[in-house]
# Entry
Amino acid sequence: MSAPTLQKGLERLSFPALLATAVAGLLGIAAFGQDDGQVYRILKVGGQETMSGYLTCWLDVAPDQRTVGLSSTQGFPYRSFPIDAEQNVQEMDIGNWYAGSRARFSSTGKYLLLQQLFYIDYAPNKDRPIKYEVVDRASQKAVATFDDLYAAAITPDETTIVTLGKDGLHLHDIATGKRTGTGLDRTGNAVAVSNDGTRIAVAHRPTKEELEKLSSLRNEKDAVKNALKVGQLVTIYDSATLKPLATLDELFDKVFRLEYSPDGKDLWIHAKPHTRKGGNPNANQSYVSVADAQTNAMKRTSFPSLALYEPDFRISPNGELFAIGSQQGRFMEVHLYDRATGAMKDRFVLSYRLFEKMATKAEFPSDGRLSFVFLPDGKRLLMTFGNRLIEWTYAP
# Structure
């Protein structure tokens, strides 16, 4: 994570990256490596048989715990279907998202929040404004569209869109479209709203004064100087007063995603080192750090990824497993970790062995982006695989 020039003051910062590198190196000889005994099947959503189109890119389970939402690339419709009834598909036209969209349900499933995805990287070394859109599922119409944001989130009461752009943090009323300034003109790269709606987490570029308060950088002038160039901090704001409540006592690489866990216990921070200034052996390396959502204290667990794209990550229904997308060589993988300890429990490799269960030649298995969801039964996980879905029974 840290470059050699960041000195010993950033030694704590380098730990997640060193851990990621070590774990990645062990994957090839892991004793729990994938074998043919894993239970899985290939789903044809809507009975699709054509190789063209419907290249899947994102999955989510609706709050009703009965519906799966599936986003595709280019101008193909957004599809949803009941769990265990993938043939019974409903379609919704959400326009043309060339490389697809990350489509997440709002708290009750009233809205979809769509975030633009890219075929090539996700601009690891620079800020890239992207498109966001909020779609009303009942009317199947977009109620808000933004073309130049760094991040956005819908509040739990589904009344407001919190946006982060070049001109800072703003609040958009979904019903009226009115934009309200927050006074936080400071820009950033990621934003998240707590499950109870009382806090807003924002990833910012640090100031010198903020860096000097970090326990790992005190009295380290050279480290502070270098951290100003490549580091970021996460600040927690009171959503009612928009006053800062706390700043996480950790210096991060560029933060691409902030998310409060579904059970409200954790704040996840996904970050990726600068590919030229980070001194990393693998340019695809990124990691998810974990903070206690209530106390704002950093936890010791960190979950690494070598995914080519910004990785998907989720927790199991019982909250015991943390899953994250990764890649080893040419194959995408889902890694399962013990959430509490950070120890790897299992992994699923989307390799050519899956061809054995292909029913026809009309398959498109090896392209696309890896996204996945745990199913509510606590036994199965769905993952994207070209124009198919893989259902993995991880707890047979």
About this structure: The chain has three helices and 27 strands. Residues 4-63+148-393 form a domain with the Methylamine Dehydrogenase; Chain H fold (CATH 2.130.10).
